[in-house]
From TrEMBL:
This is ArsR family transcriptional regulator. It comes from the Bacteria. Keywords: DNA-binding, Transcription, Transcription regulation. The lineage of its organism: Bacteria, Pseudomonadati, Pseudomonadota, Alphaproteobacteria, Sphingomonadales. One of its GO terms (molecular function) is DNA-binding transcription factor activity. Gene3D superfamilies: Winged helix-like DNA-binding domain superfamily/Winged helix DNA-binding domain (1.10.10.10).
Length: 109
C-alpha cells in the first residue's frame, strides 16, 4: 500500500457514519449485510447513505455483490489488512516483542 491509498482509506473512515458502517460490516463478515439493512442501521435516508457507501467503495473498503434481489455489502478485509500492515510496517525498529501485544489482539484477522 502506498501513502495515497492509505490516505484515501483513512479519509473515508474519517466520518462517523462511514466508520460505524465499516465496523458493522467487519462484524458481519463473511456474510455481509444488505444495503437496506445498512440504511436502517444508519438511520439516514437511502440517498444520504448511498453517498457514504460510494465514498467507502471508492476507497476500496466495501465489496458489493448481488444475491438474488438484494445488494449485499461486505467489508474488504484485504484493504483493512493492507492498511494495518502499512501503519505498522516499521513498528518498533524490528523488535517484534514490542509489537506482540498488538499482533495478539488482532489474531482473529
Amino acid at each position: 500500500m502506498e501513502v495515497p491509498d492509505a490516505l484515501s482509506i483513512l479519509s473515508a473512515l474519517g466520518h462517523p457514519t462511514r466508520l460505524a458502517t465499516f465496523r458493522l460490516l467487519v462484524r458481519h463478515e463473511p456474510d455481509g449485510l444488505s444495503t437496506g439493512d445498512l440504511v436502517e442501521a444508519s438511520g439516514l435516508s437511502q440517498s444520504t447513505f448511498s453517498t457514504h457507501l460510494a465514498v467507502m467503495a471508492k476507497a476500496g473498503l466495501v465489496i458489493s455483490e448481488k444475491r438474488g434481489r438484494h445488494q449485499i455489502q461486505r467489508a474488504n478485509l484485504d484493504a483493512l489488512r493492507a492498511l494495518m500492515l502499512f501503519l505498522a510496517r516499521d513498528c518498533c525498529q524490528g523488535r517484534t516483542e514490542v509489537c506482540e501485544p498488538l499482533l495478539s489482539a488482532l489474531a482473529c484477522c
